[in-house]
Amino acid sequence: MSIKHILQYFNLDEIDVIIVENIGNLVCPAEFNIGEDIRVAILSIPEGDDKVEKYPLMFSTSEILVLNKYDMKSYFDFDDKKVESVARELNPNINIFRVSNKQRRLK
């Protein structure tokens, strides 16, 4: 279902961005266009570095890949260089961001 059917319920003059979270597995969200302008895939480090190879459609159709919980990389056998390489083979224009959940104290 496209999000365009619910846009009538919003005052679009007051909204800059609408974020639609299409949760579930990495197969169904990739197979359907719901009217988005930008598709973001979020890959959490604890999920494993095999997801790009297992679900190539999701990563080949996303403009952005967020490697979430990057601060936990040292606790998991996660090869971010492999993930980046495979993602770029599928989609050379994908933007990749490494995001840490660890709060840093400012001095």
TrEMBL record:
GO terms for biological process: protein maturation. Gene3D superfamilies: P-loop containing nucleotide triphosphate hydrolases (3.40.50.300). InterPro entries: CobW/HypB/UreG_nucleotide-bd, Hyd_mat_HypB, P-loop_NTPase. Residues 11-97 form the CobW/HypB/UreG nucleotide-binding domain. GO terms for molecular function: GTP binding; GTPase activity; nickel cation binding; zinc ion binding. It holds the Pfam family cobW. The keyword Metal-binding applies. Transmembrane segments: none annotated. Keywords: GTP-binding, Hydrolase, Metal-binding, Nickel, Nucleotide-binding, Zinc. Signal peptide: none annotated. Belongs to the SIMIBI class G3E GTPase family. HypB/HupM subfamily. This is [NiFe] hydrogenase nickel incorporation-associated protein HypB. It comes from Thermobrachium celere DSM 8682.
